[in-house]
């Protein structure tokens, strides 16, 4: 069911890619379907080039023959298609479950249009409801960042991300990820009030800390959100019109 919903969203995003475009390729299970579908078009003669938000996405794209550009040769990306870990009713987003948040954000900011593809399980009433906020940090002194965040939260809310056998997860950039429970941000606040300014303020606090590379908050960035729902329908939402 979830797989079908992801595929529907991914295929619907193909319409945003025009011949000759520079395409940003996101990271994750839903974006994988988009890269495969785009790759099949390329194999049939469609021309585009791409920049990838992770080594995994670059490898998959290359396997389909999609030409991958060095990020330093790109000044502008026509459209990026990426997934999300959570989307709230104001189309604020958390990303970084796969550890690619910095590259994802950099390429999103280079993009004229940033299209988010999800299945319906990614919709939440408030960010942080289903997963923690990832914060990418440099390895040197990571525990000091963790302590600073815990002080702001008034308790232990951050854990260092690990992988198999308990070893520390390392991003493609050679950094670590702190996963932070952000439920404290909206605790006691009326649910009908906008949370965007709350998330933005916390993001700015985090970015001001020495050692923080970036956060998994993607606030006010989506041009379109395409959601494959489990009943077989598709929600195609224009958030902000793009050129």
Can you walk through the features of this model?
The chain is an alpha/beta fold. It is built from six helices and 13 strands. It has a six-stranded mixed beta sheet. The longest helix is centred in the N-terminal third of the chain and has 15 residues, at 29-43. The mean pLDDT is 95.
Largest sheet: 6 strands, mixed
Order of helices and strands: HEHEHEEEHEEHEEHEEEE
What's the rounded overall pLDDT mean?
A: 95
How many strands?
A: 13
A few lines on this structure:
The protein has helices at 2-12, 29-43, 55-63, 101-110, 142-153, 196-207; strands at residues 22-25, 49-52, 77-82, 86-87, 93-94, 111-119, 133-137, 158-160, 176-180, 212-215, 217-218, 224-228, 234-238. It has 243 residues and is of the alpha/beta class. Strands 2-1-3-6-12-13 form a 6-stranded mixed β-sheet.
Observed structural traits:
single chain, 243 residues, alpha/beta, six-stranded mixed beta sheet, 6 helices
Helices and strands, with pairings:
Blueprint: H1 2-12, E1 22-25, H2 29-43, E2 49-52, H3 55-63, E3 77-82, E4 86-87, E5 93-94, H4 101-110, E6 111-119, E7 133-137, H5 142-153, E8 158-160, E9 176-180, H6 196-207, E10 212-215, E11 217-218, E12 224-228, E13 234-238
Parallel strand pairs: 1-2, 1-3, 3-6, 6-12
Antiparallel strand pairs: 4-5, 5-11, 7-9, 7-10, 8-9, 12-13
Helix pairs in contact: 1-2, 2-3
């Amino acid at each position: 069911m979830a797989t079908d919903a992801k595929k529907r969203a991914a295929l619907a995003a193909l319409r945003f890619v025009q011949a000759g475009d520079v395409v940003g390729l996101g990271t994750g299970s839903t974006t994988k379907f988009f890269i495969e579908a785009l790759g099949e078009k390329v194999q049939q003669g469609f021309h585009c080039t791409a920049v990838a938000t992770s080594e995994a996405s670059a490898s998959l794209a290359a396997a389909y023959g999609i030409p991958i550009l060095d990020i330093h040769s790109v000044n502008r990306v026509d459209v990026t298609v990426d997934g999300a870990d959570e989307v709230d009713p104001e189309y604020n987003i958390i990303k970084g479950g796969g550890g690619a948040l910095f590259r994802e954000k950099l390429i999103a900011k280079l993009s004229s249009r940033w299209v988010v593809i999800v299945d319906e399980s990614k919709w939440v009433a408030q960010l942080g409801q289903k997963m923690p906020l990832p914060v990418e940090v440099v390895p040197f002194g990571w525990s000091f960042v963790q302590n600073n965040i815990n002080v702001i939260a008034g308790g232990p809310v951050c854990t260092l991300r690990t992988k198999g056998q308990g070893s520390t997860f390392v991003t493609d950039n050679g950094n670590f990820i702190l996963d932070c429970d952000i439920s404290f941000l909206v605790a006691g606040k009326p649910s009908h009030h906008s949370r965007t300014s709350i998330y933005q303020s916390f993001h700015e606090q985090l970015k001001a800390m020495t050692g923080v590379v970036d956060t998994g908050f993607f606030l006010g960035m989506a041009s379109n959100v395409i959601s494959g729902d489990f009943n077989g329908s598709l929600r195609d939402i224009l958030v902000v019109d793009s050129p």
